[in-house]
Amino acid sequence: MQASDYRCPALFISAPASGHGKTTITAALARLYRRDGKKVRVFKTGPDFLDPMVLEQASGHPVVNLDLWLGGEDHCRRQVALAAREADVVLVEGVMGLYDGEPSSADLAQLLGIPIVAVINARGMGQTVGALAQGLVAYRPELKFAGVLANGVASPRHAQMLRQGLQNARPTVPLLTGLQRDMQFALPERHLGLVAAPEIADLDTRLDAVADRMSSTSLAGLPEPVDFGAPPPERNFPRLLEGKTIAVARDLAFSFIYTANLELLQRMGATLAFFSPLADEALPECDAVWLPGGYPELYLERLQAGVNTAAGLRAHAEAGKPLYAECGGMLYLLETIVGQDGKSGRMCGILPGQATVQPRLQGLGYQTLSLNQPGAFGEHLRCHTFHYSRAVVGAQFMARGERLFDSSEGEVVYRRDKVVASYLHAYFRSAPRTVAALFGGAAA
């Protein structure tokens, strides 16, 4: 195919900070374009698990994370270019503020060449919006800006004040639209971020309401096309999991799963079998188990009442088969979890110990992990951590993560026979041989 085949209308939705409404606006645009019969592909910047669930329901298509540190430039460029070849419009939601983090949303927007929509919560603000927009634009002049979307507009007079401020900015920044305060909807949140999309009963109604509001604005029409160029070639991954079946927990309690991780396991030859601990399903016949992160602390009674899943996991571990658990998955392996309300629930007891959910954040940020696994060849597994619980685990220390931007100690990786567990969420593509070893794959 020619490079021009990878050309598609696209917008990058960012903001000065978290809390300005990026997810709301991105989801509303995705729903609006989808209702117009367009094929919409949405991406989420960074390691987030929850925003993509909302964006997936809005767009009707799986949402892939774009993270320059976890996945690398080529992987990000490839994902977007392939989407552009088939989609009518591509939307990318940023993370935090436009320039926050290393790498930042601005770095990704520049790499992809996508014009930025700056979502600004204008509540309590008038012409000063122009100074804020001017700062965002002037901070890195090489970036492309489509304009400002003002969130929380109180009245036509308020909108006029905002427009005046933007006209006084140098360079002038267009006001794409003002979303009225009484037309906003707030996505419910809890300690790890947004409430998961399947738990918001009226999510479609909320999405349609804001899409209706956006339908009368300049954003209703498709943006200008962006030529993404031919995608970089995909890496060749060794098929070290050929013939292996990996059982993967997946339900509301265990939903923090990168789509790229599932794809990587399959590329390496694994067959995936999904099961639900919340439904107390029997563990599928398998060679290895993956317990991803999620919200087990919100479902203590249901998880405690279950007998089939826990019994299957205990039998699996006692048979000496590989079991890899991340964050919430690790908590499920412990003897007890104590929630924020002080109520506790008995879990699997595969690892001795207890986790207690704290009122404050206990761990956040990128970390690298080196495991002396057979055939790993010195790979460094790139990971992210974000948790409110504190765990005391009675198991052997296998390794410790190394923080990317902090001199303090990283997360501990625990091991008991073939059970490996930690608070870290790993991005499997960064160290495929290490991942294969964790799941009992062949040495390279």
Automatic annotation (TrEMBL):
Catalytic activity, reaction form: cob(II)yrinate + 2 L-glutamine + 2 ATP + 2 H2O = cob(II)yrinate a,c diamide + 2 L-glutamate + 2 ADP + 2 phosphate + 2 H(+)
Site note Increases nucleophilicity of active site Cys, residues: 425
Biological or metabolic pathway of the protein: Cofactor biosynthesis; adenosylcobalamin biosynthesis; cob(II)yrinate a,c-diamide from sirohydrochlorin (anaerobic route): step 10/10
Cofactor (UniProt): Mg(2+)
EC number: 6.3.5.11
Start and end residues of each CobB/CobQ-like glutamine amidotransferase domain: 245-430
Limits of the CobQ/CobB/MinD/ParA nucleotide binding domain: 12-192
UniProt-annotated catalytic positions: 327 (nucleophile)
InterPro entries hit by this protein: CbiA/CobB_synth, Class_I_gatase-like, CobQ/CobB/MinD/ParA_Nub-bd_dom, GATase_3, P-loop_NTPase
Keyword list, A-Z: ATP-binding, Cobalamin biosynthesis, Glutamine amidotransferase, Ligase, Magnesium, Nucleotide-binding
PANTHER family in alphabetical order: COBYRINATE A,C-DIAMIDE SYNTHASE (PTHR43873:SF1)
Miscellaneous section: The a and c carboxylates of cobyrinate are activated for nucleophilic attack via formation of a phosphorylated intermediate by ATP. CbiA catalyzes first the amidation of the c-carboxylate, and then that of the a-carboxylate.
Domain notes: Comprises of two domains. The C-terminal domain contains the binding site for glutamine and catalyzes the hydrolysis of this substrate to glutamate and ammonia. The N-terminal domain is anticipated to bind ATP and cobyrinate and catalyzes the ultimate synthesis of the diamide product. The ammonia produced via the glutaminase domain is probably translocated to the adjacent domain via a molecular tunnel, where it reacts with an activated intermediate.
Job of this protein: Catalyzes the ATP-dependent amidation of the two carboxylate groups at positions a and c of cobyrinate, using either L-glutamine or ammonia as the nitrogen source.
Recorded family membership: Belongs to the CobB/CobQ family. CobQ subfamily.
Name by which UniProt lists this protein: Cobyrinate a,c-diamide synthase
Gene giving rise to this polypeptide: cbiA
